[in-house]
UniProtKB/TrEMBL annotation:
Natural source organism: Sphingomonas glacialis
Protein's name in the database: CarD family transcriptional regulator
Coiled-coil segments on the chain, per record: none
Matches recorded under InterPro entries: CarD-like/TRCF_RID (IPR003711), CarD-like/TRCF_RID_sf (IPR036101), CarD-like_C (IPR042215), CarD-like_regulator (IPR052531), CarD_C (IPR048792)
SUPFAM superfamilies associated with the record: CarD-like (SSF141259)
Top-level taxon in the UniProt lineage: Bacteria
Pfam families cross-referenced by the UniProt entry: CarD_C, CarD_TRCF_RID
UniProt xrefs under SMART domains: CarD_TRCF
Length: 177
């Protein structure tokens, strides 16, 4: 077993797949069930949540540093693509979307945001579609904000602007000539 494959320092932003972007606020040593454990203490401001992750489990739970610039560009490019909406039952699609969001993969999250985005001239979303869309957008915006050192609303507006421009292009393609 690799002793320290992943190493995070206090102050680092990290991505925990199920919760999104958090910050390492402390490294702790605790005795639990007679064993000495080193723990990363993560703070997720948006959820007002603190999470302790054993350092030797960080990699297996999928905890990672913020995405690379290349991955961020790939995710933002994904937003400009044509939405892919499968014609399967909503419950099945919702499960797939949740799995993509919880994977922690920035490009997969961007796919969910792209596929669930509705422009102003498109039909209204259902409540559950809107909930998943907002969750995915927030997750994407928090990582974008941490990487570009802006606040979340600014990052969210950038994402929505990209989606609006892409929707205008894709809707123009549909319009009868």
């Amino acid at each position: 077993m690799a002793a320290k494959a992943l190493s995070f320092d206090v102050g680092d932003y990290v991505v925990y797949p199920k919760h999104g972007v958090g910050r390492v606020i402390e490294l702790q040593r605790q005795e639990i069930a007679g064993m000495q454990l080193e723990l990363y203490v993560l703070r997720f401001e948006k959820e007002r949540m603190t999470l302790r992750v054993p350092t030797n489990k960080a990699e297996s739970v999928g905890m990672r540093k913020l995405s690379s610039d290349k991955t961020l560009r790939e995710a933002l490019d994904t937003l400009t693509g044509k939405p892919r909406v499968k014609r399967t039952m909503w419950s099945r699609r919702a499960q797939e979307y949740e799995a993509k969001i919880n994977s922690g993969d920035l490009v997969s999250i961007a796919e969910v945001v792209r596929d669930l985005f509705r422009a102003d001239d498109q039909p209204e979303q259902s409540y559950s579609e809107r909930q998943i869309f907002e969750g995915a957008t927030s997750r994407l915006a928090r990582e974008l904000a941490a990487m570009e050192q802006v606040d979340e609303p600014t990052a969210q507006e950038k994402i929505l602007e990209i989606l609006r421009k892409a929707a205008a292009i894709h809707n123009k393609d549909k319009a009868p000539a």
